[in-house]
Design brief:
By secondary structure, the protein is mainly α. Helices cover 69% and strands 0% of the residues. The longest helix has 36 residues. It binds copper (I) ion (CU1).
Protein backbone atom coordinates (compact mmCIF):
# COMPACT_ATOMS: atom_id res chain seq x y z
CA UNK A 1 0.00 0.00 0.00
CA UNK A 2 2.93 2.31 0.68
CA UNK A 3 4.14 4.47 -2.15
CA UNK A 4 7.36 5.64 -0.47
CA UNK A 5 10.65 5.44 -2.32
CA UNK A 6 13.79 3.75 -0.99
CA UNK A 7 15.16 7.10 0.19
CA UNK A 8 11.93 7.84 2.02
CA UNK A 9 12.00 4.43 3.64
CA UNK A 10 15.51 5.08 4.89
CA UNK A 11 14.47 8.40 6.38
CA UNK A 12 11.37 6.84 7.91
CA UNK A 13 13.49 4.17 9.49
CA UNK A 14 14.79 6.68 12.02
CA UNK A 15 11.52 8.46 12.65
CA UNK A 16 8.95 5.71 12.69
CA UNK A 17 8.85 2.45 14.60
CA UNK A 18 8.28 -0.78 12.66
CA UNK A 19 6.28 -3.93 13.28
CA UNK A 20 3.65 -3.89 16.01
CA UNK A 21 4.92 -0.61 17.50
CA UNK A 22 4.11 1.06 14.20
CA UNK A 23 0.44 0.30 14.86
CA UNK A 24 0.59 0.82 18.60
CA UNK A 25 2.13 4.28 18.23
CA UNK A 26 0.55 5.47 14.99
CA UNK A 27 -1.12 8.87 14.89
CA UNK A 28 -2.11 8.68 11.22
CA UNK A 29 -5.87 8.93 10.69
CA UNK A 30 -5.81 6.32 7.92
CA UNK A 31 -3.94 3.79 10.08
CA UNK A 32 -6.28 4.43 12.96
CA UNK A 33 -9.28 4.25 10.63
CA UNK A 34 -8.07 0.85 9.43
CA UNK A 35 -7.61 -0.38 12.98
CA UNK A 36 -11.10 0.78 13.97
CA UNK A 37 -12.67 -0.90 10.95
CA UNK A 38 -10.78 -4.17 11.48
CA UNK A 39 -11.56 -4.15 15.21
CA UNK A 40 -15.25 -3.52 14.44
CA UNK A 41 -15.33 -6.39 11.95
CA UNK A 42 -13.64 -8.79 14.39
CA UNK A 43 -16.22 -7.82 17.00
CA UNK A 44 -18.99 -8.33 14.43
CA UNK A 45 -17.71 -11.88 13.95
CA UNK A 46 -17.46 -12.52 17.72
CA UNK A 47 -20.92 -11.10 18.45
CA UNK A 48 -22.19 -12.92 15.36
CA UNK A 49 -20.77 -16.27 16.48
CA UNK A 50 -22.49 -15.81 19.83
CA UNK A 51 -25.89 -15.11 18.28
CA UNK A 52 -25.48 -17.98 15.80
CA UNK A 53 -25.11 -20.25 18.85
CA UNK A 54 -28.37 -18.76 20.09
CA UNK A 55 -30.07 -19.26 16.71
CA UNK A 56 -28.81 -22.85 16.61
CA UNK A 57 -30.35 -23.38 20.05
CA UNK A 58 -33.63 -21.91 18.79
CA UNK A 59 -33.60 -23.93 15.54
CA UNK A 60 -35.99 -26.45 17.10
CA UNK A 61 -37.75 -26.57 20.47
CA UNK A 62 -36.27 -28.80 23.20
CA UNK A 63 -32.90 -28.43 24.92
CA UNK A 64 -30.02 -28.93 22.47
CA UNK A 65 -26.82 -26.91 22.80
CA UNK A 66 -26.68 -24.42 25.65
CA UNK A 67 -28.10 -24.25 29.17
CA UNK A 68 -30.47 -21.34 29.96
CA UNK A 69 -27.77 -19.54 32.02
CA UNK A 70 -25.36 -19.64 29.11
CA UNK A 71 -28.14 -18.57 26.73
CA UNK A 72 -28.65 -15.42 28.81
CA UNK A 73 -24.92 -14.64 28.77
CA UNK A 74 -24.82 -15.08 25.00
CA UNK A 75 -27.66 -12.66 24.27
CA UNK A 76 -26.20 -10.12 26.74
CA UNK A 77 -22.74 -10.17 25.18
CA UNK A 78 -24.20 -10.19 21.67
CA UNK A 79 -26.02 -6.92 22.38
CA UNK A 80 -23.12 -5.18 24.12
CA UNK A 81 -20.55 -6.35 21.57
CA UNK A 82 -22.62 -5.41 18.52
CA UNK A 83 -23.47 -1.92 19.80
CA UNK A 84 -20.24 -0.89 21.55
CA UNK A 85 -17.74 -3.22 19.86
CA UNK A 86 -18.92 -3.40 16.25
CA UNK A 87 -21.33 -0.61 15.25
CA UNK A 88 -19.78 2.37 17.02
CA UNK A 89 -16.14 1.56 16.19
CA UNK A 90 -17.15 0.95 12.55
CA UNK A 91 -18.61 4.47 12.43
CA UNK A 92 -15.51 5.91 14.12
CA UNK A 93 -13.38 4.06 11.57
CA UNK A 94 -15.30 5.70 8.73
CA UNK A 95 -14.95 9.07 10.47
CA UNK A 96 -11.20 8.63 10.84
CA UNK A 97 -10.72 7.70 7.23
CA UNK A 98 -13.06 10.15 5.58
CA UNK A 99 -13.61 13.15 7.85
CA UNK A 100 -10.23 14.79 7.13
CA UNK A 101 -10.74 14.00 3.44
CA UNK A 102 -14.22 15.49 3.09
CA UNK A 103 -13.34 18.72 4.89
CA UNK A 104 -9.86 19.09 3.42
CA UNK A 105 -7.86 18.63 6.63
CA UNK A 106 -4.43 16.94 6.71
CA UNK A 107 -5.40 14.69 9.64
CA UNK A 108 -7.62 14.64 12.72
CA UNK A 109 -7.04 17.62 15.00
CA UNK A 110 -5.75 15.60 17.97
CA UNK A 111 -3.74 12.65 16.57
CA UNK A 112 -2.36 11.31 19.85
CA UNK A 113 -5.80 11.41 21.44
CA UNK A 114 -6.97 9.58 18.34
CA UNK A 115 -4.44 6.82 18.96
CA UNK A 116 -5.49 6.53 22.58
CA UNK A 117 -9.22 6.45 21.72
CA UNK A 118 -8.59 3.37 19.64
CA UNK A 119 -6.20 1.53 21.94
CA UNK A 120 -8.66 1.69 24.84
CA UNK A 121 -10.96 -0.56 22.82
CA UNK A 122 -9.11 -3.91 22.61
CA UNK A 123 -8.55 -4.16 26.40
CA UNK A 124 -12.19 -3.18 26.93
CA UNK A 125 -13.29 -5.99 24.63
CA UNK A 126 -11.07 -8.46 26.51
CA UNK A 127 -12.55 -7.21 29.77
CA UNK A 128 -16.05 -7.76 28.41
CA UNK A 129 -15.62 -11.37 27.25
CA UNK A 130 -13.12 -12.67 29.86
CA UNK A 131 -15.69 -13.71 32.51
CA UNK A 132 -17.71 -15.46 29.80
CA UNK A 133 -14.68 -17.42 28.54
CA UNK A 134 -13.62 -18.28 32.11
CA UNK A 135 -17.19 -19.40 32.76
CA UNK A 136 -16.99 -21.80 29.81
CA UNK A 137 -13.90 -23.28 31.45
CA UNK A 138 -15.84 -23.70 34.69
CA UNK A 139 -14.14 -20.79 36.48
CA UNK A 140 -16.31 -18.15 38.17
CA UNK A 141 -19.92 -17.21 37.55
CA UNK A 142 -19.69 -16.50 33.81
CA UNK A 143 -20.38 -13.30 31.88
CA UNK A 144 -23.17 -10.84 32.66
CA UNK A 145 -26.55 -12.50 32.10
CA UNK A 146 -28.88 -9.50 32.37
CA UNK A 147 -29.42 -8.62 28.72
CA UNK A 148 -27.51 -5.64 27.32
CA UNK A 149 -29.86 -3.30 29.21
CA UNK A 150 -28.44 -4.50 32.55
CA UNK A 151 -31.74 -3.94 34.38
CA UNK A 152 -31.70 -3.70 38.18
CA UNK A 153 -32.34 -5.52 40.45
CA UNK A 154 -30.90 -8.51 38.52
CA UNK A 155 -27.74 -6.58 37.62
CA UNK A 156 -27.21 -5.77 41.32
CA UNK A 157 -27.46 -9.41 42.37
CA UNK A 158 -25.78 -11.32 39.54
CA UNK A 159 -22.18 -12.71 39.61
CA UNK A 160 -18.89 -10.91 39.12
CA UNK A 161 -19.14 -11.02 35.33
CA UNK A 162 -21.23 -7.87 35.88
CA UNK A 163 -18.27 -6.06 37.51
CA UNK A 164 -16.14 -6.79 34.46
CA UNK A 165 -18.97 -5.52 32.27
CA UNK A 166 -19.21 -2.30 34.28
CA UNK A 167 -15.47 -1.72 33.90
CA UNK A 168 -15.67 -2.51 30.18
CA UNK A 169 -18.57 -0.08 29.73
CA UNK A 170 -16.51 2.63 31.42
CA UNK A 171 -13.62 2.04 29.01
CA UNK A 172 -15.84 1.85 25.93
CA UNK A 173 -17.56 5.06 27.00
CA UNK A 174 -14.23 6.78 27.58
CA UNK A 175 -13.08 5.73 24.13
CA UNK A 176 -16.12 7.14 22.39
CA UNK A 177 -16.04 10.39 24.39
CA UNK A 178 -12.40 10.97 23.39
CA UNK A 179 -13.13 10.10 19.75
CA UNK A 180 -16.09 12.51 19.82
CA UNK A 181 -13.96 15.35 21.17
CA UNK A 182 -11.58 14.75 18.29
CA UNK A 183 -14.37 14.79 15.69
CA UNK A 184 -15.83 18.04 17.05
CA UNK A 185 -12.46 19.82 17.28
CA UNK A 186 -11.50 18.65 13.79
CA UNK A 187 -14.73 19.86 12.20
CA UNK A 188 -14.83 23.19 14.01
CA UNK A 189 -11.18 24.07 13.37
CA UNK A 190 -9.80 22.30 10.35
CA UNK A 191 -12.21 22.85 7.48
CA UNK A 192 -10.67 23.95 4.18
CA UNK A 193 -10.67 27.72 3.60
CA UNK A 194 -14.06 28.87 2.36
CA UNK A 195 -15.92 25.85 3.72
CA UNK A 196 -18.51 27.32 6.06
CA UNK A 197 -20.62 25.04 8.25
CA UNK A 198 -23.45 25.08 5.72
CA UNK A 199 -21.12 24.20 2.88
CA UNK A 200 -19.48 21.24 4.51
CA UNK A 201 -20.50 17.78 3.29
CA UNK A 202 -23.40 15.99 4.99
CA UNK A 203 -20.92 13.35 6.15
CA UNK A 204 -19.26 15.95 8.38
CA UNK A 205 -22.59 17.22 9.71
CA UNK A 206 -23.69 13.69 10.58
CA UNK A 207 -20.53 12.96 12.56
CA UNK A 208 -20.58 16.35 14.28
CA UNK A 209 -24.10 15.69 15.59
CA UNK A 210 -23.21 12.12 16.54
CA UNK A 211 -20.20 13.36 18.51
CA UNK A 212 -22.28 15.90 20.43
CA UNK A 213 -24.87 13.23 21.22
CA UNK A 214 -22.18 10.87 22.52
CA UNK A 215 -20.67 13.51 24.77
CA UNK A 216 -24.17 14.16 26.08
CA UNK A 217 -25.12 10.55 26.84
CA UNK A 218 -22.02 8.47 27.60
CA UNK A 219 -21.22 10.21 30.92
CA UNK A 220 -24.79 9.43 32.04
CA UNK A 221 -24.25 5.73 31.36
CA UNK A 222 -20.90 5.91 33.15
CA UNK A 223 -22.64 7.47 36.16
CA UNK A 224 -25.33 4.79 36.00
CA UNK A 225 -22.96 1.83 35.98
CA UNK A 226 -20.96 3.47 38.79
CA UNK A 227 -24.15 3.64 40.88
CA UNK A 228 -24.68 -0.01 40.00
CA UNK A 229 -21.16 -0.81 41.21
CA UNK A 230 -21.86 1.08 44.45
CA UNK A 231 -25.08 -0.88 44.97
CA UNK A 232 -23.24 -4.14 44.33
CA UNK A 233 -20.27 -3.60 46.63
CA UNK A 234 -20.65 -0.55 48.84
CA UNK A 235 -24.16 -1.02 50.17
CA UNK A 236 -25.76 2.00 48.60
CA UNK A 237 -29.42 1.52 47.66
CA UNK A 238 -29.86 3.51 44.47
CA UNK A 239 -31.79 0.70 42.80
CA UNK A 240 -32.99 -1.15 45.90
CA UNK A 241 -36.62 -0.45 46.87
CA UNK A 242 -36.11 -1.94 50.36
CA UNK A 243 -33.44 0.67 51.03
CA UNK A 244 -35.47 3.60 49.69
CA UNK A 245 -34.17 3.38 46.09
CA UNK A 246 -35.98 2.38 42.92
CA UNK A 247 -35.01 -0.18 40.26
CA UNK A 248 -36.94 1.86 37.68
CA UNK A 249 -34.37 4.63 38.21
CA UNK A 250 -31.88 2.35 36.43
CA UNK A 251 -34.21 2.10 33.44
CA UNK A 252 -34.41 5.89 33.20
CA UNK A 253 -30.62 6.25 33.36
CA UNK A 254 -29.99 3.43 30.92
CA UNK A 255 -32.49 4.59 28.30
CA UNK A 256 -31.44 8.20 28.62
CA UNK A 257 -28.27 6.83 27.05
CA UNK A 258 -29.92 3.94 25.18
CA UNK A 259 -32.38 5.80 23.01
CA UNK A 260 -30.04 8.52 21.70
CA UNK A 261 -27.63 5.63 21.16
CA UNK A 262 -29.98 4.42 18.42
CA UNK A 263 -29.37 7.72 16.64
CA UNK A 264 -25.66 7.55 17.41
CA UNK A 265 -25.80 4.43 15.24
CA UNK A 266 -28.11 5.92 12.60
CA UNK A 267 -26.75 9.45 12.08
CA UNK A 268 -23.28 8.48 10.75
CA UNK A 269 -24.97 6.28 8.16
CA UNK A 270 -27.39 9.11 7.34
CA UNK A 271 -24.22 11.03 6.51
CA UNK A 272 -22.78 8.26 4.31
CA UNK A 273 -25.92 7.45 2.31
CA UNK A 274 -26.37 10.82 0.49
CA UNK A 275 -22.73 10.62 -0.69
CA UNK A 276 -23.28 7.16 -2.14
CA UNK A 277 -26.65 7.92 -3.72
CA UNK A 278 -25.38 11.17 -5.18
CA UNK A 279 -22.40 9.45 -6.85
CA UNK A 280 -24.47 6.63 -8.36
CA UNK A 281 -27.43 8.78 -9.38
CA UNK A 282 -24.90 11.27 -10.80
CA UNK A 283 -26.71 14.23 -9.25
CA UNK A 284 -25.97 16.48 -6.28
CA UNK A 285 -27.79 15.37 -3.15
CA UNK A 286 -31.31 16.78 -3.01
CA UNK A 287 -32.22 19.20 -0.22
CA UNK A 288 -28.89 19.78 1.51
CA UNK A 289 -30.25 22.34 3.98
CA UNK A 290 -33.34 20.24 4.69
CA UNK A 291 -31.12 17.25 5.41
CA UNK A 292 -28.90 19.21 7.79
CA UNK A 293 -31.85 20.60 9.75
CA UNK A 294 -33.53 17.19 9.81
CA UNK A 295 -30.41 15.65 11.31
CA UNK A 296 -30.26 18.45 13.89
CA UNK A 297 -33.94 17.88 14.72
CA UNK A 298 -33.41 14.12 15.02
CA UNK A 299 -30.44 14.60 17.34
CA UNK A 300 -32.35 17.09 19.51
CA UNK A 301 -35.55 15.02 19.71
CA UNK A 302 -33.63 11.80 20.40
CA UNK A 303 -32.69 12.97 23.89
CA UNK A 304 -36.25 13.64 25.07
CA UNK A 305 -38.04 10.39 24.18
CA UNK A 306 -36.20 7.70 26.18
CA UNK A 307 -39.08 6.40 28.30
CA UNK A 308 -40.87 4.88 25.31
CA UNK A 309 -38.77 1.85 26.27
CA UNK A 310 -40.52 1.82 29.64
CA UNK A 311 -44.26 1.96 28.90
CA UNK A 312 -44.67 -1.38 30.65
CA UNK A 313 -42.78 -0.34 33.80
CA UNK A 314 -45.71 1.49 35.37
CA UNK A 315 -45.90 5.09 34.21
CA UNK A 316 -48.60 7.75 34.58
CA UNK A 317 -50.91 8.20 31.61
CA UNK A 318 -49.64 11.75 31.14
CA UNK A 319 -46.03 10.58 30.90
CA UNK A 320 -47.05 7.80 28.52
CA UNK A 321 -48.80 10.29 26.25
CA UNK A 322 -45.82 12.66 26.27
CA UNK A 323 -43.30 9.94 25.42
CA UNK A 324 -45.64 8.47 22.81
CA UNK A 325 -46.18 11.72 20.90
CA UNK A 326 -42.59 12.95 21.17
CA UNK A 327 -41.39 9.60 19.83
CA UNK A 328 -43.79 9.75 16.90
CA UNK A 329 -42.58 13.29 16.19
CA UNK A 330 -39.11 11.95 15.27
CA UNK A 331 -40.60 10.19 12.27
CA UNK A 332 -41.14 13.61 10.64
CA UNK A 333 -37.49 14.73 10.24
CA UNK A 334 -36.63 11.11 9.45
CA UNK A 335 -39.22 11.15 6.68
CA UNK A 336 -37.66 14.35 5.33
CA UNK A 337 -34.29 12.58 5.10
CA UNK A 338 -35.90 9.65 3.28
CA UNK A 339 -37.67 12.07 0.96
CA UNK A 340 -34.42 13.86 0.12
CA UNK A 341 -32.61 10.58 -0.56
CA UNK A 342 -35.39 9.32 -2.82
CA UNK A 343 -35.62 12.70 -4.56
CA UNK A 344 -31.91 12.41 -5.33
CA UNK A 345 -32.76 9.38 -7.48
CA UNK A 346 -35.32 11.39 -9.44
CA UNK A 347 -34.19 11.78 -13.05
CA UNK A 348 -30.71 10.67 -12.04
CA UNK A 349 -28.49 8.59 -14.25
CA UNK A 350 -28.65 5.61 -11.91
CA UNK A 351 -26.38 2.59 -11.90
CA UNK A 352 -26.51 -0.24 -9.40
CA UNK A 353 -22.99 -1.00 -8.25
CA UNK A 354 -22.53 -2.69 -4.87
CA UNK A 355 -22.40 0.51 -2.76
CA UNK A 356 -25.65 1.72 -4.34
CA UNK A 357 -27.30 -1.67 -3.74
CA UNK A 358 -26.37 -1.52 -0.07
CA UNK A 359 -27.63 2.08 0.13
CA UNK A 360 -30.95 1.05 -1.44
CA UNK A 361 -31.15 -1.97 0.86
CA UNK A 362 -30.58 0.32 3.83
CA UNK A 363 -33.38 2.68 2.75
CA UNK A 364 -35.96 -0.03 2.08
CA UNK A 365 -35.26 -2.28 5.07
CA UNK A 366 -34.60 0.50 7.55
CA UNK A 367 -37.99 1.84 6.44
CA UNK A 368 -39.52 -1.32 7.88
CA UNK A 369 -37.66 -0.77 11.13
CA UNK A 370 -38.92 2.81 11.30
CA UNK A 371 -42.53 1.97 10.53
CA UNK A 372 -42.70 -0.85 13.09
CA UNK A 373 -41.12 1.60 15.54
CA UNK A 374 -44.27 3.69 15.19
CA UNK A 375 -46.30 0.62 16.15
CA UNK A 376 -44.22 0.18 19.32
CA UNK A 377 -44.28 3.92 20.07
CA UNK A 378 -48.05 3.62 20.53
CA UNK A 379 -48.25 3.21 24.31
CA UNK A 380 -51.52 1.25 24.08
CA UNK A 381 -50.15 -1.21 21.53
CA UNK A 382 -46.72 -1.48 23.15
CA UNK A 383 -48.08 -3.44 26.08
CA UNK A 384 -48.95 -6.23 23.61
CA UNK A 385 -45.66 -6.31 21.75
CA UNK A 386 -43.05 -5.14 24.20
CA UNK A 387 -41.76 -8.38 25.59
CA UNK A 388 -42.43 -10.30 22.40
CA UNK A 389 -40.31 -11.14 19.37
CA UNK A 390 -42.01 -8.28 17.50
CA UNK A 391 -39.72 -5.90 19.39
CA UNK A 392 -36.64 -7.97 18.55
CA UNK A 393 -37.61 -7.95 14.88
CA UNK A 394 -38.27 -4.19 14.96
CA UNK A 395 -34.92 -3.11 16.37
CA UNK A 396 -33.00 -5.54 14.22
CA UNK A 397 -34.73 -4.09 11.14
CA UNK A 398 -33.67 -0.69 12.44
CA UNK A 399 -30.10 -1.61 13.36
CA UNK A 400 -29.01 -4.28 10.89
CA UNK A 401 -29.71 -2.22 7.75
CA UNK A 402 -28.13 0.77 9.45
CA UNK A 403 -25.00 -0.56 11.06
CA UNK A 404 -24.18 -3.34 8.61
CA UNK A 405 -25.77 -2.45 5.25
CA UNK A 406 -25.22 1.29 5.63
CA UNK A 407 -21.62 0.81 6.72
CA UNK A 408 -21.10 -1.64 3.83
CA UNK A 409 -22.39 0.99 1.40
CA UNK A 410 -19.67 3.32 2.67
CA UNK A 411 -16.96 0.65 2.77
CA UNK A 412 -17.59 -0.53 -0.82
CA UNK A 413 -17.88 3.08 -2.00
CA UNK A 414 -14.52 4.09 -0.57
CA UNK A 415 -12.68 0.76 -0.89
CA UNK A 416 -11.09 1.83 -4.23
CA UNK A 417 -9.88 5.02 -2.58
CA UNK A 418 -8.51 3.16 0.44
CA UNK A 419 -6.80 0.29 -1.35
CA UNK A 420 -6.02 1.75 -4.78
CA UNK A 421 -7.83 -1.18 -6.39
CA UNK A 422 -11.36 -1.89 -7.57
CA UNK A 423 -13.03 -4.73 -5.66
CA UNK A 424 -14.62 -7.66 -7.50
CA UNK A 425 -18.00 -6.23 -8.52
CA UNK A 426 -19.59 -9.65 -9.09
CA UNK A 427 -18.65 -10.87 -5.62
CA UNK A 428 -19.76 -7.55 -4.13
CA UNK A 429 -23.21 -7.98 -5.67
CA UNK A 430 -23.34 -11.57 -4.45
CA UNK A 431 -22.48 -10.28 -0.97
CA UNK A 432 -25.40 -7.84 -1.14
CA UNK A 433 -27.82 -10.55 -2.32
CA UNK A 434 -26.78 -12.87 0.53
CA UNK A 435 -27.21 -10.05 3.06
CA UNK A 436 -30.61 -9.01 1.67
CA UNK A 437 -31.94 -12.59 1.67
CA UNK A 438 -30.32 -13.49 4.99
CA UNK A 439 -31.53 -10.39 6.79
CA UNK A 440 -35.15 -10.72 5.74
CA UNK A 441 -35.23 -14.46 6.30
CA UNK A 442 -33.84 -13.92 9.81
CA UNK A 443 -36.00 -11.07 11.00
CA UNK A 444 -39.28 -11.17 9.02
CA UNK A 445 -40.36 -14.43 10.73
CA UNK A 446 -39.64 -12.76 14.07
CA UNK A 447 -42.35 -10.15 13.41
CA UNK A 448 -44.81 -13.00 12.86
CA UNK A 449 -43.55 -14.88 15.91
CA UNK A 450 -44.02 -11.76 18.01
CA UNK A 451 -47.53 -11.16 16.73
CA UNK A 452 -48.31 -14.81 17.48
CA UNK A 453 -47.16 -14.24 21.07
CA UNK A 454 -43.65 -15.70 21.30
CA UNK A 455 -41.83 -13.96 24.16
CA UNK A 456 -38.25 -12.78 23.64
CA UNK A 457 -35.19 -13.83 25.66
CA UNK A 458 -36.25 -17.45 26.12
CA UNK A 459 -34.08 -20.47 25.27
CA UNK A 460 -37.08 -22.63 24.45
CA UNK A 461 -40.57 -22.23 23.09
CA UNK A 462 -43.90 -23.89 22.36
CA UNK A 463 -44.25 -26.17 19.33
CA UNK A 464 -46.41 -23.80 17.26
CA UNK A 465 -43.45 -21.44 16.84
CA UNK A 466 -41.14 -24.10 15.39
CA UNK A 467 -41.39 -23.42 11.63
CA UNK A 468 -40.79 -19.69 11.78
CA UNK A 469 -37.88 -20.14 14.19
CA UNK A 470 -36.32 -22.63 11.83
CA UNK A 471 -36.58 -20.12 8.95
CA UNK A 472 -35.08 -17.40 11.15
CA UNK A 473 -32.12 -19.60 12.11
CA UNK A 474 -31.41 -20.49 8.47
CA UNK A 475 -31.45 -16.77 7.63
CA UNK A 476 -28.98 -16.04 10.42
CA UNK A 477 -26.51 -18.60 9.07
CA UNK A 478 -26.82 -17.09 5.58
CA UNK A 479 -25.86 -13.74 7.14
CA UNK A 480 -22.88 -15.42 8.80
CA UNK A 481 -21.72 -16.81 5.44
CA UNK A 482 -22.16 -13.39 3.78
CA UNK A 483 -19.58 -11.93 6.16
CA UNK A 484 -17.05 -14.61 5.25
CA UNK A 485 -17.54 -13.66 1.59
CA UNK A 486 -16.94 -10.02 2.54
CA UNK A 487 -13.58 -10.93 4.11
CA UNK A 488 -12.58 -12.63 0.86
CA UNK A 489 -13.66 -9.63 -1.24
CA UNK A 490 -11.65 -7.20 0.90
CA UNK A 491 -8.49 -9.33 1.00
CA UNK A 492 -8.69 -9.81 -2.76
CA UNK A 493 -9.12 -6.05 -3.24
CA UNK A 494 -6.20 -5.15 -0.96
CA UNK A 495 -3.92 -7.61 -2.73
CA UNK A 496 -4.62 -6.45 -6.27
CA UNK A 497 -7.16 -6.11 -9.00
CA UNK A 498 -7.95 -3.40 -11.49
CA UNK A 499 -6.27 -0.11 -10.56
CA UNK A 500 -8.68 2.50 -9.22
CA UNK A 501 -8.84 5.84 -11.03
CA UNK A 502 -8.69 9.10 -9.04
CA UNK A 503 -12.43 9.25 -9.60
CA UNK A 504 -13.41 5.64 -9.11
CA UNK A 505 -17.05 5.85 -10.14
CA UNK A 506 -17.77 6.57 -13.77
CA UNK A 507 -19.64 9.79 -14.49
CA UNK A 508 -19.63 10.82 -10.82
CA UNK A 509 -16.95 13.48 -11.35
CA UNK A 510 -17.14 16.19 -8.76
CA UNK A 511 -19.72 14.25 -6.79
CA UNK A 512 -17.25 12.18 -4.85
CA UNK A 513 -16.83 14.44 -1.90
CA UNK A 514 -13.24 14.28 -0.95
CA UNK A 515 -11.63 17.64 -0.77
CA UNK A 516 -8.13 18.32 -1.93
CA UNK A 517 -7.11 21.33 0.13
CA UNK A 518 -7.78 24.24 -0.46
CA UNK A 519 -11.46 25.03 -0.97
CA UNK A 520 -13.76 22.57 -2.73
CA UNK A 521 -15.32 23.52 -6.02
CA UNK A 522 -18.40 21.43 -5.32
CA UNK A 523 -20.29 23.08 -2.50
CA UNK A 524 -23.89 22.01 -3.11
CA UNK A 525 -24.61 25.41 -4.60
CA UNK A 526 -23.10 24.69 -7.97
CA UNK A 527 -24.30 21.92 -10.20
CA UNK A 528 -21.36 19.85 -11.43
CA UNK A 529 -21.30 19.03 -15.13
CA UNK A 530 -22.63 15.53 -15.80
CA UNK A 531 -21.07 13.74 -18.76
CU1 LIG B 1 -35.84 4.33 21.80
Amino acid sequence: MSTTTAADTHAEHHDHPAGFSRWLLTTNHKDIGNMYLIFAFVMLMVGGAMILTVRAELFTPGLQIVKPELFNQLITLHGLIMVFGAAMPAATGLANWMLPMVIGAPDMALPRLNNWSFWILPPAAVMLVTPFVLGLAGIGTGGADTGWTMYAPLSVQTGWGMDFTIFAVHMLGMSSILASINVIVTILNMRAPGMTMFKMPLFAWAFLLTAFLLIFIMPVLAGGVTMLLMDRHFETNFFNAAGGGDPVLWQHIFWFMGHPEVYVLLLPIAGVIPHVISAFARKPSFGYTAQVWSMIAIAALSIVVWAHHMFTSGMSTGAQLYFMYSTMLISLPLAVLFYCWIATFWRGSISLETPMLFALGFIVFFGWGGLTGLVLADAAADAQYHNAYFLVAHFHYALYPTTVMGAMAGVYYWLPKWTGHMYDERLGKLHFILVAIGMNLTFLPQFLLGLAGMPRRIPDYALQFADLNMASSIGAFILGISHLLFIYVVIKCVRGGQKAEARAWEGADGLEWTVPSPAPYHTFETQPVVK
